[in-house]
Write a structure and sequence with these properties.
Elements: E1 5-10, E2 13-18, H1 20-27, H2 46-67, H3 81-104, H4 106-109, H5 123-131, E3 135-140, E4 143-148, H6 153-161, H7 167-172
Antiparallel strand pairs: 1-2, 3-4
């Protein structure tokens, strides 16, 4: 930004002025970006190169997801290559599970364009809702019975979106 403004900051004085010539010189680049590549010009179409560059946002999102609330990874000191590989595998497996859940739960995670609200709020809220589903193991007269807690309509909707079969069916098997 400093190329577009002249700033004077002295004791008791602060002034700035726009460098109009410099702003005009760069105005033709507004909304444009330049991608440099070591790929030969004939081997890859410009559009495909641009699309692959834009896909990097998904890689960045994956690493953000792994470092924040959804997976909560942090640096761990490993002492051999197999430990590093195992740790990376576990992290990416967790990311893949979360990615799949986001795809399946998109109807409740997508924000309304006008109100900017979504039904679920976040994956953390979904986890809390589903954590309320419990199974109790009861033994009566030597017989074991499994009792499912009541499931809220919202939790049932989440299970349906995740393509989980009826929990009663699972328990009876």
């Amino acid at each position: 930004m400093e190329r577009f403004f002249e700033v004077v900051c002295e004791e008791g004085v602060f002034t700035y002025a726009r460098r109009e010539e410099e702003i005009a010189r760069y105005a033709h680049l507004d909304g444009c970006y330049v991608i440099r590549s070591n790929v030969a010009a004939c081997s890859q179409a410009t559009e495909e190169l641009r699309d692959r560059y834009k896909d990097l946002k998904y890689v960045e999102q994956a690493f953000r997801t792994m470092k924040t609330a959804d997976i909560q990874t942090w640096p761990i000191r490993h002492f051999n290559e197999m430990q590093v590989r195992g740790h990376l595998f576990a992290c990416f497996l967790a990311y893949r599970v979360i990615w799949e859940l986001r795809q399946r739960l998109a109807p409740v995670l997508e924000r309304d364009p006008e109100s900017k609200r979504c039904e679920a709020g976040s994956l953390a809220e979904i986890w809390r809702e589903l954590a309320g589903i419990t199974v109790a193991k009861l033994e009566v007269n030597g017989q074991t019975h499994l009792k499912l807690s009541s499931i809220t309509p919202y939790a049932q909707k989440l299970l349906t979106l995740c393509r989980v079969p009826s929990l009663q069916t699972i328990l009876s098997e």
